[in-house]
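testing teh design pipeline on a random one, pls ignore if ur not involved
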């Protein structure tokens, strides 16, 4: 069986200009392959539901797997892409249901309708990208299509109902260690993107703060403060989070020994790897692999 799965993404995400001239909430569906499937970002929030195929998802610096029922909310300017694993020349007629809405839609209404403030923490978390873990795919498809079939104020009302339900859902994970702040100036965003892209691509190698400072033409102390303010993490903690994220992927998707995964993800000894893993995931690598196998079945499936 010939399978196509292209995991590469460009050095910089493509900016997508949203058409908000006549409406604040957009709905679209598409299959795979599709011109819309690319490493990109935009100024809107996006709810993205996968209804067919499996593959790899990229959100900020996160790389993971997806399958039917995969539901993610991304915030403004957070780069993202979904690449399906398909046989050569295979076409997936309908893969994605997507709702996009203006970044200031809910916050603007909340100024006059305080009842909407309960949704705001959800939208704040979306700066990292949120994956909802316990999704009934049929109910999710129905909710998305209710938004599709509505128009005018009714479409906004349907969206708010969906967002309220998601705000109540506590079974979720945050995806990207980098939180995008939509109002950050473009020059700062470009520097952060450059550094996080480098770390994501070179996590297995030694990465020093001085090297990253030089990469964006800053001195070490200024870069350290700048990076912590932009990402909410110290530089060392951010690198460890990226490495642990990669380790989680290998623990879930492969049968490689944990010791091999330790060195493959840039840690120089197993004790440090176990300590950092427990610090960030609150369980050991072995426990994580066991839980992952229980969630996805006893057989390894490369998604």
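output:
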């Amino acid at each position: 069986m010939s399978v196509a799965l292209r995991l590469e993404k460009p050095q910089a995400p493509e900016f997508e200009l949203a058409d908000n001239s006549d409406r604040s909430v957009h709905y679209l569906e598409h299959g795979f392959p599709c011109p819309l499937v690319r490493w990109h970002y935009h100024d809107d929030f996006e709810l993205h539901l996968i209804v067919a195929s499996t593959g790899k998802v990229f959100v900020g610096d996160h790389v993971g797997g997806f399958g039917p029922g995969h539901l993610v909310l991304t915030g403004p300017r957070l780069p993202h892409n979904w690449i399906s694993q398909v046989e050569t020349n295979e076409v997936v007629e309908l893969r994605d249901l997507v709702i996009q809405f203006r970044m200031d839609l809910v916050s603007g209404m909340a100024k006059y309708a305080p009842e909407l403030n309960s949704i705001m923490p959800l939208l704040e978390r979306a700066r990292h990208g949120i994956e909802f873990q316990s999704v009934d795919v049929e109910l999710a498809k129905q909710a998305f299509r209710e938004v599709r079939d509505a128009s005018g104020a009714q479409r906004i009302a349907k969206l708010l109902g969906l967002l309220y339900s998601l705000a109540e859902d506590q079974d979720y994970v945050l995806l990207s260690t980098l939180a995008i702040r939509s109002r950050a100036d473009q020059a700062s965003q470009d520097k952060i993107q450059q550094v996080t892209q480098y770390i994501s691509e070179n996590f297995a190698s030694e990465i020093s703060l001085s090297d990253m400072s030089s990469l964006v033409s800053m001195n070490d102390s200024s870069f350290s403060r700048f990076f912590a303010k932009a990402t909410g993490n110290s530089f060392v903690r951010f690198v460890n989070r990226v490495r642990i994220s990669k380790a989680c992927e290998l623990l879930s998707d492969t049968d490689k020994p944990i010791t091999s995964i330790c060195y493959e993800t840039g840690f120089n000894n197993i004790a440090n790897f176990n300590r950092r893993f427990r610090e960030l995931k609150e369980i050991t690598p072995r426990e994580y692999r066991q839980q992952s196998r229980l969630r996805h079945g006893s057989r390894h499936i490369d998604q």
